[in-house]
Amino acid sequence: MILVTGGTGFIGSHTVCELIENGKEAVIVDNLSNSSDDVLDKIKKITGVKPAFVKGDLCDKALCDRLFKEYVIDSVIHFAGLKAVGESVQKPLEYYENNVYGTLNLLDAMRKNSVKKIVFSSSATVYGMKNTPPLKEDMPLSATNPYGRTKLFIEEILNDLYASDNGWSIVKLRYFNPVGAHPTGIIGEAPSGYPNNIMPVILRTAAGKIEQMCVFGADYDTPDGSCIRDYIHITDLAKGHIKALEYIEKTGAGCVAVNLGTGRGYSVFELIGAFERVTGKKVNYRVGERRKGDVAVCYADPTKAKELFGWTAEKGIDSMCEDAWRFQQNYGK
Ligand code: UD1
What we know:
The protein is of the alpha/beta class. Helices cover 42% and strands 17% of the residues.
C-alpha cells in the first residue's frame, strides 16, 4: 500500500487516481487545511475505488507512527505542505513547522517502521533566481522566500538521510507549473480566497468572478515582455509519480532529483491567448507592475525524467486550458 500525504489536494488527488488506475492501493493522510474530503467520492467516481483516508496532521507525531501500524505501507508519496509564497513571508514559522517538522515526523516514522521508499514533492523554486534555463537538476540551488526554503531544506534533509543510510530510495520531484484538471472535469484546482497562481486567476476571470486580472509585468526581457513558464498538465505530472515509484522498484536504493516539466515555455500573454482560443471565452486583463520575486523565464530541461523514468509530458497547452475550464464550469469557485 502507498501512503499519500496531502492526497486530497490538487496534485495529490490526481496522483491517487493514477495510482488506482495502475492497480495500486493508496491510503491518504491529509489535515484538509486546503482541501475537502469530498474529493474522496470524486476519486471513486473517476476510478471506481474510494481510497482509504485518515484525517490528520503530520505535525502529530503519534499519528505518523500510528499510520505505519494500521496500514501495511511499502512506500510514501509526500505532498502535504503549505505552498503560498506570499503567505510564507508573513508566516515563516507556520511554514517551517508544517513543512519541515511535519516531514521530520514522517521520515522518523518511516525509519522506525523500515519503510525507506519516498517520492517527495519539491519545486522548481529550488533553482532560485540565478540559473539560466533550461534548468537542469545539477544546477546550484537557492531559495528566495520561506516556502522555497522549506523545499530546499527538505531536499537537503533527504540527502543527509540517504548519506546516513544507503538503504533509502528517495526521488525528489521538482515540479514546474502544474495546471489543468482531470479530463472528466470532476477534480481540479479550486483554491480558497484570491488565487496565487495564474490558471485559477484566468479561470475566475473568464467565469466573471474576477472582473479584471492583472498581468504582472510586460517589461521583461522576453519576446512579448511577459514572464515565461513551463506549464505542465496535472495528469502528466501525476503520471510522473507513478514512473518515479516504478523507478524506485526497479533500481532499488538511491537519492535523485528529477524535473517534471515539458521543456517548453509559454508567456503569460501566450497562455491567456491559448485559453481564449480554446474556450472561446474572453479574459479581461490589464498590465500591472511586476510581482516581487518573479523570474523572467523558467522552464525545465526534462531529459533526466526521460532517461531515468521513461517519462515525458504528453499533453499540450490546449488540453491544459480545455480541461481546466471544464472543471471550472462544474465546480469552480
Ligand atoms: C509560483 C511560486 C513558486 C511555486 C509555484 C507553484 C511565486 C513567486 N512563485 O510560481 O514558488 O513553486 O507557484 O505553486 O509565487 N501571473 C500574472 N497574474 C496573476 C498571477 C500570475 O501575471 O494574477 C504571472 C506571474 O507573474 C508568472 C506566471 O503568471 O509570470 C505564473 O505565476 P504563478 O502561477 O504564480 O507561478 P510561479 O510564479 O511560476
